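Dear H.,

Thanks for agreeing to be a second pair of eyes. The structure we're designing against is below in token form, covering all 159 positions.
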């Protein structure tokens, strides 16, 4: 008979061997969105390497600074600001954006270190990293004269 366990529990509680307490719980909060950020007021940042010698691409020559400014709305919450360069990496260098020439990439540096593409880096809005770019070629490749271009997205966002 299935009534025995219930009767036993009732009998134990009736003689004071069961005790319990309960309390109501309430939960509340406010969902906030991080403030928006813009880089260079939303304008395209262009880097023109000019004429590049096919035998002079060595990852050092033609290195240029990438000038940019980040502006973010104000907020009192301690958001974490991240910066990334998003684009298609070359098969030979994870910090180089693939160009229209298969053996040529544009390596990105942050504070003199290779900046792996598609990898957010925690930064401070008051002192963003110094960015630089330089053409690099696939090891052992022989470049031939051609026009080249590459596209990537510089993204600053709070998380």
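And this is the sequence the design step returned. I haven't edited it by hand at all.
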């Amino acid at each position: 008979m299935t009534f025995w366990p219930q009767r036993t529990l009732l009998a134990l509680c009736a003689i004071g061997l069961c005790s319990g307490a309960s309390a109501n719980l309430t939960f509340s909060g406010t969902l906030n969105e991080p403030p928006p950020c813009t880089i260079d007021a939303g304008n395209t940042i262009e880097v023109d390497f000019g004429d590049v010698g096919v035998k002079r691409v060595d990852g050092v020559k033609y290195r240029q600074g990438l000038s940019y400014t980040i502006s973010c709305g104000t907020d009192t919450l301690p958001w974490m600001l991240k910066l990334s360069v998003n684009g298609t990496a070359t098969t030979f260098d994870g910090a180089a954006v693939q160009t229209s020439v298969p053996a040529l990439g544009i390596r990105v540096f942050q504070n003199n270190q290779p900046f792996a593409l598609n990898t957010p880096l925690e930064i401070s809005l008051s002192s963003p990293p110094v960015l630089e770019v330089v053409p690099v070629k696939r090891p052992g490749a022989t470049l031939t004269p051609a026009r080249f271009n590459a596209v990537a997205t510089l993204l600053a966002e709070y998380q």
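Two observations from my side: Strands lie at 37-39, 64-66, 70-72, 81-86, 96-98, 104-110, 113-114, 121-122, 131-137, 153-158. Residues 3-14 form the longest helix (12 residues).

Warmly,
E.
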